[in-house]
Amino acid sequence: MTWFQIVWTTASAVEHGGQGGIAAELRALLHDPGHDRYGLEVCELAQLPSGTVYPILARLEQIGWVESRWEDPETHVAEGRPRRRYHRITADGAEQARDAVARAYRSRRQQVPGWLNHHPGPAI
Fold it and tell me: Of 34, 3, 36, 1, nearest to 104 (Cα)?
């Protein structure tokens, strides 16, 4: 997915209520850009089903906006649960995401939400 397609998809999501897949997912990842989040945590924060979240995470990783890593196998074995894949928005991804969502709001002549200007910590 190209940058233009992400902007267009985000604009479409904003036009239809502002909580579309990519817009909600970017908001979840931008909430604390330096924090690793596993997939189901992103689902919960974005209030989206896994069938929506995981394909978007994959596309965002393909274009370099998100990085992912598998947790240490010893951790999930010790905790008795499935292994988690953690995702983190990159510094460039955070900048591009904020710009894309802001442009989507502006193109619809809507006020840009304050959370886009909030930078709680650097993405690593």
Answer: 3
